[in-house]
Fold this protein.
Amino acid sequence: MDFEKPLPVATATSKPFWEALTRHEVQIQQCADCQAWIYYPRAFCPECLSPKLEWKQISGKGTLYSFTIARRPTAPFWADEVPQLIVVVELDEGPRLTSTLCNVEEGDIRVGMRLQPVFDDVSGKDVTLLRYEAE
Amino acid sequence: MGLQGTAAIVGIAELKPEKKPTGPEMFSIEQWAQLARLALLDAGLRPGDVNGLVTSAVMESAMFAPATVAEYLGMEVDYAEHVDLGGATAAGMIWRAASAIELGIADVVVCALPGAMTPQPPDAPPAMDGWLYGASSNAYGSPQAEFEIPYGNIAQNSGYSQIANRYGEEFGYDPRALAKIAVDQRTNACANPEALFYGKPLTIDDVLNSPMIADPLHMLEIVMPVSGGAAVVLASREKAAQTPHRPVWLSGFGERLAFKTPTYAADLVRTPIGPAADTAFGMAGVSREDIDMVSIYDCYTIAVLLAIEDAGFCGKGEGMDFINAHDLTFEGDFPCNTHGGQLSFGQTGMAGGLSHVTEGARQIMGRAAGNQMARCDTVFVSGNGGIMSEQVALILRGD
């Protein structure tokens, strides 16, 4: 069976995030009322439910909060990527996001390590995924 | 505030977990009827006595699950509820049923969770989404579809290994202590002929030598879904007096949920079972020392460790020493999952969560098999949905 990897489909709310990634920039939202940084993109602030959210450019850098080394594919799509290095990144602004780690030896993965974005332009598709590597 | 402890579990039914089902395939509503029938027979109550039901989703109807069940069972009820808390559904059903009884809106409530595959239509391709994405939603606009699935962050192993790796960073990690949880529970299963792994003892080395699935989780630290099903009947004090078994009163509960994907948990290793357990103990007016048995939702060994710590049976970060210092078997000084837990009794789908309730009831009623405890009056039950995300705590007591 052939499995095409599932890709994100941008919504009206998240479009600026995905468009910034195609320009190799990271933009997330900040609440104009309570200044909370927000990830993933939302229509309302998860701190105060304000609808006044502004897009801000950030470096995308952060630290490794935790990780998975999946030795069995989490679903058939990723059978060719085992071991999958799935990570939780804590952005310097505070919010956490899910990503995968590249250009790293398994044994070098440490909670707390500094990370920087890798912009992965998916071949043949108009989408860029935000992956990470050691800073 | 809270329950007075005047609603009791008075009947239970549980199908023997099976890797390959031996009986005929049945639709969810058929399984529901079978389980309700068995639990009512156990309670010595008639279908006409039932005036409340609590269900989770049924495969045959994406909406209106309670009405679908009521109609199929031929019941008119004054209270109907649909609970959707993943692995915490079972425990969540019990307190909702007890609350309805204490409010006086129902006096006999059936909670059932079918746990067997349902027949597929002839000539139709099997639905793939459940198989591919599990509990993750790939619907348009779902945060998981957009921000988790494209990175392969799906299925439970990924999240539980993130929890274990973060835990190791903060508190250290003793793989033998984690493996001992599975081993002690297997000892319990070996005294319980109903358990899937009855007659198959296990050692710590067996666990540590089983394949690594997602570091540091070994295969034998992860539940294997099997076929089964369970149901519970709860009744008011007046109705309970007419039933044959020692009533198992629900004297306290707590519930807490905060996220779906653990990436967005405020703290990955301090889990919502903490506040849920505090609420339950406070309501019941009992202390941790009063607990004779803990029936902890054990989809993974790490889930048991975190629940023991966060529910307050030992200090934070002391769980591994606690496990090593205590005997978790039915004859031990800290009996845990005396039926074998889902790891060794079997994870019968959603009904696996109910096995923690039925086992607590069985021990208090004095109806367990070779794994019956010498004395058991007070049980702590936990339900755990998703990836430590939905948590329910229950305190069960015998008079």
Summary: The domain at 60-135 of chain A is CATH 2.40.50 (OB fold (Dihydrolipoamide Acetyltransferase, E2P)). Chain A has a mean pLDDT of 96.
